[in-house]
Amino acid sequence: MLQFALSAYNLLCRCLGVAFAVWFTLLFVIIIVPAVLGVSLGIHGFYIRTLCRLFEWTTSQMELRAKQKNQQLFKPHTKGILPKSELLSVQENMQELRSSAHSRRSEPQFDLADVIYFSQKGVESIVDDEVTKCFSAQEVESWNLLTRSICRFPHRGLRLTLLWGLGVLIRYGILLPLRVILAVTGIFLFVVLSTSVGFLPNAKLRSFLGEKVHLMGYRFCVKSLTAFITYHNSENRPKNGSICVANHTTPLDVIILANDRCYSLVGQVHRGLLGMIQKAMVKSSPHIWFERAEVKDRHLVAKRLCDHAADKTKQPILIFPEGTCVNNTSVMMFKKGSFEIGCTIFPVAIKYDVRFGDAYWNSSKFGLVRHLLRIMSSWALVCSVWYLPPMKREEGEDAAQFAKRVKAAIAAEAGLADLTWDGGLKRTKVKDAFREEQQRLYSSVLLGEHQIQTEEICCKDETQEED
Amino acid sequence: MGSRASTLLREEEIEEIKKETGFSHSQITRLYSRFTSLDKGENGALSREDFQRIPELAINPLGDRIINAFFPDGEDQVNFRGFMRTLAHFRPVEDNEKNKNVSNTEPLNSRTNKLHFAFQLYDLDRDDKISRDELLQVLRMMVGVNISDEQLGSIADRTIQEADANGDGCISFTEFMKVLEKVDVEQKMSIRFLH
Q1: Geometric angle at alpha carbon A82, from A78 and A84, rounded to 5°
Q2: Residue A46 domain-assigned (yes or no)
Q3: Does the beta-carbon distance from A77 to B142 stay under 8 Å?
Q4: Which residue of A lies nearest to B122 if distances are taken between CA atoms?
């Protein structure tokens, strides 16, 4: 009996050993080697196409079930709840509201009905507003077999629930461990190689090899996230000695962009693992890392950026002017700091396909590690990157206007909404100055001043601080 | 993943809300997902802070008064039913509703009820009268620091003089309705939904 158990156990170990060896060899050949060499085997494309077909089938199944139950299929409100109305000035609204046209009197005109305008605007913003929508995850049009969107879609049925269960097994049992191993291998290789390159005496060789090592590191990261990136208009890829700006959705934006060419990153020095990676990065290529205390000193930051950008041989600096992660449905206000420097700006637009996994990092809900795990347990990270033609500040245009122009170009290219609200509203309250502006506008109406131009009811850039 | 209040609304609840407020099925589910997205504490109720987090509402001069309208009787939390009941005042009046009289109670979005909502924005202590003081306070909220006390006082006095029919120095709801009788309240106090 014991003999039998022992021999069975031995057999099991051998089988597991063989299985593990096979799996590891496959992993090595199919994923790691191509990642190091920069070659693609076309597996990702096949995977994405299969998933697309699967999602279409899921939707049709759900529609069928909904029809059987005689109910409407729940359609998420991706276009918002209220129709967009034109922004009339406070004055125009008041005039419409008041019962009779008052002639211009020298005394202030108040009407008890004025409160209706404010209450209408207020309740409209309660029902649907532009800003809070940007800070929560984007909704999928139809179910993508992920647990996170399961609650919104009731018409699942047995087949889909089984499929979802299978998906959970595959994603958490196979894909997630695979991706984590890849990420760890990649980071380890990168740190070791980058540090070794840093010891080379010849500067040219160092920068050449440094670039290769960086690209390899990013390719590993991309593979570990199963990121499927399409680069458009590569002729506009950022050149040396410039600044690259992009919309920000997740810290992984850096990896998405750096997969194509090397950038110099700007950021705070961190401790721990991230700090070690930062130190390794700096050994083989120039990056701008600030101590926490220095970040507060805007002039120092600006000076270092200027110096780096002035050197035409140096890699382009990658900056995210929104200052915070936004959910990839809109672009929020660009802080003007990076637009004051005066060199060429290469705008880049990034748009993620939310069907395969939501890439937005909601930093108030979960930390970075949990965010990475969420991405690694989604189906894939599919995105499009558009390189826009370079832009320079024009005559008579100040930094804030230039920033607005660049933002509009990025929003138009990626099909995102162009908002003038500050991304900082994610965490902070809106400044009193804006309410005071509304009060001022209303007072002008009361006092009968007709020379008010149509003001935007959104935030103004001049009063904003840069990061 | 969250065991949040993204549990769907039960059909019976939707029907009840439909009867009470007149919103359609899809409008109710839509507003429910809006409600849950505002509910950061995920406890099935909204607090005043949840409303104040909306920037467009925070810059509205009467933002605090509007938020107050959602919290009757000094409570601190409003659940979905209460939320819908207040929003129902802003439901557009459909033409076929004007002649229908399904129940004996007036629908929440009738002209009278809409005007009552506006009246309550002025009536700070809820005593069904707008006193000179209350009018001054609301005016001050709307104009900020841009108009002097004397000017504001004379505006308030003139308004009360024009509106006050029975001479008690306050504006009652009936007097308020009389002043606003020419205003197209049904159109101005309505939220038109996309679908």
Answers
A1: 95
A2: no
A3: no
A4: A115
